[in-house]
C-alpha cells in the first residue's frame, strides 16, 4: 500500500507539472479501477502471502506462467489473433526458468499450507494477467498509460488498504535507511518507470509477446512484479 501510494503521488506530481489531462468519465474510471485492482493490488497480496509458505524460486516459476495466460486471454477477451509461435516461445522460456530454479522445485512437497500457497500464487498470476488484458483494453480505447497508471496505482493502494484493514493489520512504518531506500526504489524505478515502460510495450506489441518479460533474467517478475 505504501509503495503504490507513493508511486501514484510521484505520477500525480509529474502530471500536474506537465498539465496533462486527468478528466475521465465514470465508466472509464471503472476500467481504470479494475486495472488497479488486478494489476496493482490483488496479485501482490496473493503472491506475497504465497511466499510465506513457498520458496521464492517456485513462486517465480509459477508467476512466469503469465506468458501462457496472456496468450490465452488475449484472444478470449480482446479478440486478438492466437499466435502459436508465441505460445511455443513462452513454454521454452518457462522451461528455461524452471531449470534455473530446479533445486528449489525438486525439494517441493505438496502439503496443506504449501498447497494453499501454490493456489494463491496461481490466482495471483491470473490476476496480473487479467490486469495486463485490461491495460491493453484501456489503451485501445484511448486511455493514456501515464494517467491510467497514476489513477490505477491509487485505486490499487486503496484496495490493498481495504484488505489490510479487514485483516486488522497494524500500520507501522520502518524508518530504517534500508527500508526507506528500498521503498523509494520500488515506488520510483519498480513502479513508475518499470510499469510505465512495460505497459507501453504491452500496448504496442500485445499482452502475449510483452509477457516474455517474465522470463528475462534480471528483468522478469522480480523487476517490478511482486516476486
Description:
The protein is mainly alpha-helical. It has one domain (2-15, 26-224). It contains eleven helices and no strands. It has helices at 2-18, 26-50, 56-63, 66-78, 84-100, 102-106, 112-140, 145-166, 177-205, 207-210, 221-224. Helix 8 packs across helix 9. The longest helix has 29 residues, at 112-140. The protein is globular, with a radius of gyration of 17 Å. The two termini are 16 Å apart.
| Low-pLDDT runs | 219-223
User: What fraction, in percent, of the residue positions are helical?
Assistant: over 70%
- Total domain count: 1
Our measurement of the CA-to-CA distance between the termini, rounded to an integer number of angstroms, reads: 16 Å
Characterize the main sheet: none
The succession of helices and strands, N to C, reads HHHHHHHHHHH
Q: Assess the beta-strand content as a share of residues.
A: under 5%
Specify Rg, calculated over alpha carbons: 17 Å
Rough outline: globular
